[in-house]
Every structure is written in structure tokens, then in C-alpha cells.
Design goal:
- The chain has 7 helices and 20 strands.
- The chain is α+β, with helices and mostly antiparallel strands.
- It folds into 2 domains: 207 residues, Protein Transport Mog1p, Chain A; 176 residues, Protein Transport Mog1p, Chain A (3-Layer(aba) Sandwich), CATH 3.40.1000.10.
- The strands form 4 sheets. The chain has a 7-stranded antiparallel sheet, with helices on both faces. The chain has a 7-stranded antiparallel sheet with strand order 13-14-15-19-18-17-16, sandwiched between helices. A 3-stranded antiparallel sheet has the order 1-2-10.
- It is elongated and about 75 Å long.
């Protein structure tokens, strides 16, 4: 193990030494311009009502929309608010694109508009965290956030200003994931009344609870085995391309995130590659040639026109298989040498376990270039790395 650790350190140093220096400020990767830094802002500090005063001013609401346990919720709303006609008795069908209205509650009418609370739901179509999902939702909708915080992987909250006809509203939004559903709660307050209603707005959303916690269902995946050495799972929508197996010393595959776009005619379609993940298994017995393999890989990357630049960050919170002796993930800036305006990210993972080294490399459009694709690629990459497990063949002594 000591020799492996030393060699891995040299290997990483070799990889880092092969990167090119690209000024981050030239390509919108300063901390100020990072998409998460740009959108994530703390919610304003508001003097809240005491618990007794809040309970006296509100009433408890408990609902089970469409008789679905996953949607059952509780919330406290200001007294004397009214509910729009309950549609829960109609047919239940959630969309993966558009929110379905569950319930709407109204305050009294005013000359500046009417406060209201909307409860909506949507079917999730990915493994994104609530933070990633909501940022994608904001970017696609063209909204401007005043504040945005992620309470957990399954809960986020934001504050924004929006216009409806001739009225301006402060909208505080809570999004919670439950099972394969996203539940969104919006509290609209006319800007004219925000000072007197800000505390109520915040505490009403704090009172929202889901009655039945349901484990999240992962998207459909497929399994790929590297002989008897290792196994991973990848999204069903991705495609695997494997090279002819000539030796158990080296095993290579490529997993591609392909978006199929239907053409005008049934037989015509276009494939767009949104991300490419390469997986390489190398037997520890051939470690003397690994540095040369990295040089070859660098040449391969350069020939495709992508320059690997400075390290952006570590790979975040990734759980590796417990049979691994060592594992690390790092993220690098990537630039298209033919078009400096195109940004990429290069995710690089090295794992050591049994008698093999495992390399997983993801090339994806950057978070600032195309956030929706980046979020899908990187979350899938994390899931693939976390699913990577060793089999008995990884620990067998072979005759090389």
C-alpha cells in the first residue's frame, strides 16, 4: 500500500504538471462570477413573531391532495384567508415539465394586490439535488433572485420580486423534494405591504411540513461489468462504447450522454453529445507505464482541441466504495482552443483498490456555459463514481 500511495502521488503530480495555465479571470471563473456565488445569497434577517403570537394569528391547514400520501402536507395560514375551489377530487396526473396546482389560498383584496399562497407539485425527471434543480428552473424561467439558500439536498428557499399585470410582489418560495415529486410553495405579498407582512411570510413557509417522508427513487440505470474486476451503474439514457478487450491489464470504456433530437421525418434524427465520461482500469503490475499513458491521454485531449487548465475545486462530497484504499476527485477548467468563448470542465477521479488503479474522467460544458447540462452530467458522474464497486477479480493475483 505504501508503494501505491507514493506512486499515486507521483501520478497526480504528473497529471497536474501536464495541465496548461489558463488565467481564470479571462474565462468568467472568478469567485464573483461563479453561478453558485452569483445566485446564492442569504435570506434577509427579519424580526419574527413570537411562537404564541404566530399561532394566535394563524390557523392550521392539513391537506392530502389527490389522496396521494407523498403530497400530504400541513401549513399554518393567516386567519380569515380563503381557499380557492379544491380540485383534489379530479383526476391525478403530474407532469415532468409543468407544475400542477394543488391548492391556492387568498388574503383580503387590497388596492396594491392580494396576498396568496400557492402549493404546486411536479414529477422529477433527474437525480439533481434541489439546489441544482431550482437553479436550472430559475435560469430557464429567466427569474432574478433576491436571495437563495439550500437547506439540504432536498430543500431550498428563495426570495424574488415579480410583476403580475400592474402589481409588484415579493415572492418567497420553498421547494421540497419527496420521493419523485417536487413540491413548491409560493407566498406572494404586494410590495406595498412587505414590511408588515414579511415576518408572516417567512414563518408561514417555516410551518410547511410534509406528512409522509418518501425515499427518493433514482432514475433508471444500467449495469456494466469490467469482467470479474469491477462494476458500475450509469443512466439508462447514456450510451456505452467499449474497446476490444486484449488484456485484463487494461480495460477501457466510454460512456456518453447523448441527446437524441427527432428530425422532420420519422427516420431522421440528430444526436448531440452533452458529455463524455471515460473509464480506465489499469493493473498495478504495469504501473511503470502509467505516466506514459497519461502523456498519451493528454495528447488525445489536446488533439480534440480541449486544453486542461487550472484546478477549479475538489470534486465535492462523493462517497467512494469502502473497499477502495484511496480515492480522490478534482475539477479542472477546460477551454476549447478553437473557440475561447466555450467553457468546459474536466472532472478527474483516481481510485486505488485491490490490484488495480481506476481512472474516471468527465468532460462537460461548464456550469456557467450550460448549467442544465452541467448539472445533469456532474450529478450523473457522482452517481457513477459512487456506484463503482470492486468484485473478487480485483483482488486476484494474475500471471502477467
Amino acid at each position: 500500500m505504501f508503494k501505491k500511495a507514493i506512486f499515486l502521488s507521483l501520478l497526480l503530480a504528473g497529471f497536474l504538471g501536464l495541465t496548461v495555465s489558463i488565467p481564470l479571470d479571462a474565462y468568467a471563473y472568478t469567485e464573483k462570477e461563479d453561478i453558485f456565488t452569483r445566485f446564492k445569497k442569504p435570506l434577509p434577517e427579519i424580526p419574527l413573531l413570537s411562537e404564541d403570537d404566530f399561532y394566535k394569528a394563524t390557523m392550521a391547514i392539513n391537506k392530502k391532495p389527490y389522496s396521494q400520501k407523498v403530497l400530504e402536507y400541513g401549513i399554518r395560514l393567516p386567519k380569515n384567508w380563503t381557499e380557492r375551489e379544491d380540485k383534489s377530487s379530479s383526476n391525478f396526473s403530474l407532469s415532468k415539465k409543468l407544475f400542477l396546482e394543488l391548492n391556492v389560498y387568498y388574503g383580503k383584496p387590497t388596492i396594491a394586490g392580494r396576498s396568496r399562497v400557492e402549493v404546486q407539485a411536479l414529477d422529477l425527471d433527474s437525480n439533481l439535488t434541489a439546489e441544482q434543480w431550482y437553479l436550472r428552473y430559475i435560469l430557464e424561467g429567466g427569474y432574478t433572485l433576491e436571495s437563495f439558500v439550500a437547506h439540504s439536498d432536498n430543500k431550498v428557499e428563495s426570495l424574488m420580486v415579480t410583476m403580475e399585470k400592474d402589481y409588484s410582489f415579493y415572492v418567497r418560495t420553498l421547494v421540497m423534494f419527496n420521493g419523485d415529486k417536487a413540491i413548491m410553495v409560493k407566498y406572494f405579498v404586494p410590495i406595498h405591504y412587505i414590511q408588515e407582512q414579511a415576518a408572516m411570510q417567512a414563518q408561514v413557509l417555516q410551518s410547511f411540513t410534509l406528512k409522509n417522508t418518501v425515499e427518493r427513487t433514482d432514475i433508471e440505470t444500467k449495469s456494466y461489468r469490467f469482467l470479474d474486476v469491477a462494476e458500475l451503474r450509469y443512466p439508462e439514457s447514456w450510451k456505452v462504447y467499449s474497446k476490444p478487450l486484449r488484456s485484463v491489464d487494461r480495460i477501457d470504456i466510454t460512456i456518453v450522454n447523448v441527446n437524441e433530437i427527432a428530425g422532420q421525418f420519422a427516420e431522421s434524427s440528430t444526436s448531440i453529445t452533452n458529455g463524455k465520461l471515460e473509464v480506465k482500469l489499469v493493473a498495478a503490475a504495469v504501473q511503470d507505464s502509467l505516466i506514459n499513458e497519461i502523456k498519451v491521454y493528454k495528447q488525445k485531449v489536446e488533439s480534440s482541441g480541449i486544453l486542461i487548465g487550472d484546478k477549479i475545486s475538489a470534486g465535492g462530497d462523493i462517497s467512494y466504495n469502502n473497499r477502495m484504499n484511496f480515492a480522490i476527485t478534482e475539477v479542472y477548467l477546460g477551454i476549447d482552443s478553437t473557440n475561447s468563448l466555450s467553457e468546459y470542465e474536466y472532472w478527474f477521479t483516481v481510485m486505488v483498490g485491490g490490484n488495480y488503479y481506476y481512472f474516471l474522467n468527465l468532460l462537460t460544458p461548464s456550469r456557467n456555459e450550460n448549467f442544465a447540462v452541467w448539472a445533469d452530467n456532474t450529478q450523473s458522474y457522482k452517481n457513477i463514481v459512487e456506484s463503482f464497486r470492486l468484485m473478487s477479480g480485483a483482488f486476484m493475483e494474475r500471471d502477467y
